[in-house]
Amino acid sequence: MITNTTAVAYMRASTKEQDATRAREEITLFAKENGITIRGFYVENVSGAYLERPELNRLLEEAKPHDIILVEKLDRLSRLSAEEWSLLKERIRTKRLRIVCLDIPTTLAVLQGGQPVGAGGFDVRRVVLDAMNDMLLDIAAAWARDDYETRRKRQQQGIEKAKKLGRFKGKQKDEELRSKIRTLLDTGSMSQNQIANLIGCSRNTVSRVARGE
Fold first, then answer.
1. What's the pLDDT band for 114 if we cut at 50, 70, 90?
2. Which of 157, 191, 160, 198 is nearest to 177 (CA)?
3. Hey, which residues are catalytic here?
4. How many domains, the chain?
5. pTM of this prediction?
6. Hey, which of 96, 102, 162, 185 would disulfide with 167, CB 3.0 to 4.6 Å?
7. Are residues 104 and 181 in the same domain?
């Protein structure tokens, strides 16, 4: 177990309809078992293919030197192109932060023992683990990007095929969800934020229903 280690946890989902906090319990348990103190959770619903993300930017602004960035999987942090992934890594290094992924064991092992960066010591084990860690993170980032591009390509192929067959109707509205929202709006007893939290949808979805869209 590592000790006296602080972390900032990052959780992300691609759409507002997905639960970005799904991994919170797993991350919290992991931190407890490994002596990591989580100073804050940063949660957002936005594509990992974007480098500029509000909560990720806030995390990088508020994190303290030698904090670790704790994520469930690397694809939660990045589905970036190789160039943008390099930019993000540089921002992380500049802040003297480390990445720990629950599914990449070496990202935790690299924190165990050895001299901290800048302490003036030289630890061969640390250097080797750092190199291995960087390599595995780069591989995971490349896989995440490849998966993202493959999904987009297949989605587009499916749309094109449906269009040729005259079956493509665009994104369909969830009428059952919209009906629940309308019912709650009609009561006049709840705000749009309260309705969104109760049903588990985005505030924008509630607003669109309220406007009759």
1. very low
2. 198
3. 14
4. 2
5. 0.67
6. 162
7. no
